[in-house]
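New to this. Please check both lines:
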Amino acid sequence: MADYQVPQFIEDESRLIGPFTLTQIGILVIGCGSAFIFYKLFKSFIGIPLAVIILFLTGMLTFSQMNNMPLYKMIVPILKHFILPKSYQWSQPRFVKNLSQINTQKVLDSDTPNKSTHNFKKIDDLTKILDKGNE
C-alpha cells in the first residue's frame, strides 16, 4: 500500500512576516493607525491617553492568548455569551404533538365497570392506537 502524508497543524495560521500572521499584522496596522489618528486629531490632553488606551487594546488583542487560543479569535464567542439570551425554551417534539392528538380517552372509558382497575385488553388497545400514531 502507498503511504500518504497526513497534514499536521492545519489549525495554525501561516506566518507572514517573522512571528506575525496576516490577522495579527492587520490588527496592528488598524490599531496603530487609529491611535496615530486620534493623537493627531485631539493633540495632548485627550489624544495621548486615548492613543495609549488604543495601543494597549491593540497589543492585548494581537499578542495575548486565552486557553491556547488567540484573543482575537475569542472575541466573537465572548460577545455571543454576553449578547445572546441565556435561557433555552423547550419546544415539544413533533411526534409528541401528533400522539397528543389521538383520543385515548375512548379506550380507557369504554365499558369499564370499575375505572380504578385496569384491564389488560384496554391497555393492549391503547398500545395499538399509539403504535398507529407513530407510523
In short: DSSP finds five helices and four strands in the chain.
